[in-house]
């Protein structure tokens, strides 16, 4: 149970109750399709919930919005922000609305005016909204694994800015569209471009993430220990990309992250969301603050609680029989027994109809699961120089003081808490709004395992394993048939084997996954592989029903 001590905690919970009473929910039948024709499934979100979750910023700053709308692609004069261009990176479009007047794709957000600009950035749904393609239909999956190709998007933004700076005619058109004088604007664009290049250089790696993956821990470790602390020697190669995890059920779990390293009780969700805001084109100034406490940051703190509240409401997507076909009830019944015998010990069942469900994650050791260890090894092996954090307490007012070195994750925690303490009242309020009842779980100093989650909605979250190295459920159960290479992105869904087929629908919207590359191993997770072909088919049919 999330609680706050003392009278202030009681007062804040009273305020939270008053806010809820002033905003009663009204029954509403959510839309079944977007204006662009995507099929929407019932995942317990109203249309207003969707719009809020799709387009609300947590503080990410890629470009000023006027620049983003004026920018041309690097090699021609077409708008960078066009649907044709942004679709190349894996973004999906729902259409213009009051919340999204500029018809940006799902997951592109805009801040209120800050430091002279409203800023375009990436929101939660940029990485956590999936797409399933089947027989000329596109099914949108809220909270699913997005197919965003992060590295390509970042490089393309930089290329477009550099081309604008090099080409006088291109820059003249850009300046006219932005509505600012060229000399001053050119200096601003040059400085911001250099900051993006520096960020990219700090996170340079030979690892090609491809569609639907990011080394989120590697990038936030570098952001705090290299960018914010200013210590180049702390840089580590972010070469352990993992799939963007699905978010239904996640707010109900006791532990989150692929390695179950983050407890979800108390202020856990607030800290996790604030950390994401710093990692995804965020900023932190460890030498200044606005209110005499903590560190000044770009986090939009007042949005964190409402964002978390929407994700808490979200439920898993159910198999859409009207598109993918009816389930075989006899096989589902048979598969349910097989699941109980072979899967349930690790993958608990989740009742999507219970709004207050509490889920305990199962931690499976590396030795037992046998999957690629790179992500776990990188997390545990990242020790960094503390620099200006040396002598400061982990939790500011409490906890041990930092010595000359510390685990990178503890430096990240300190930086995030510092960003929240720069706005202590707002952070406390958002902590209340983020608070939901979950099981308590201690922080593990040595998380040498991967988390097994409930498999609700598993049909909509291919490719599988933490690093996205297995394209179908059938291949999960038959490791000898696992493909060495396959396409990820806009590919036809396979409703029989459940996952990604070999049929590429758009060559410029896929990336090639090669399991022979470092960090990409498709080995391990041999549970259920002993079953007969008939039993495997029954188990897969049951998994479709979850």
3D architecture notes:
36% of the residues lie in helices and 13% in strands. Strands 1-6-5 form a 3-stranded mixed sheet. A 3-stranded antiparallel sheet has the order 2-4-3.
Comma- or semicolon-separated keywords:
546 residues, alpha+beta, 3-stranded mixed beta sheet, 3-stranded antiparallel beta sheet, 19 helices, 20 strands, 36% helix, globular, disordered N terminus
Quick structural gist:
With 546 residues, the chain is α+β, with helices and mostly antiparallel strands. It has 19 helices and 20 strands.
Please identify the structural class as seen in this structure.
alpha+beta
Helix content: 25-40%
Proportion of residues in extended strands: 5-15%
> Reading side by side through the largest sheet, how are the strands ordered?
1-6-5
Q: Ranges with pLDDT <50 over ≥5 residues?
A: 1-26
DSSP E strands, number: 20
Please tell me what the overall shape is: globular
Please describe the topology of this protein.
Layout lengths: L5 H17 L16 E2 L6 H9 L7 E2 H6 L12 H5 L20 E3 L8 E4 L1 H4 L1 E6 L2 E6 L7 H17 L1 H11 L3 H21 L10 E2 L1 H13 L13 E2 L11 E2 L5 E2 L4 H12 L4 E2 L10 E2 L6 H10 L7 H4 L4 H14 L19 E4 H4 L4 H8 L1 E3 L19 E3 H14 L2 H11 L14 E4 L20 H5 L7 E5 L1 E4 L4 E6 L5 E5 L18 H13 L1
Parallel strand pairs: 1-6
Antiparallel strand pairs: 2-4, 3-4, 5-6, 7-8, 9-10, 11-12, 13-16, 14-15, 17-20, 18-19
Helix pairs in contact: 6-7, 6-8, 9-10, 9-16, 10-16, 11-17, 13-19
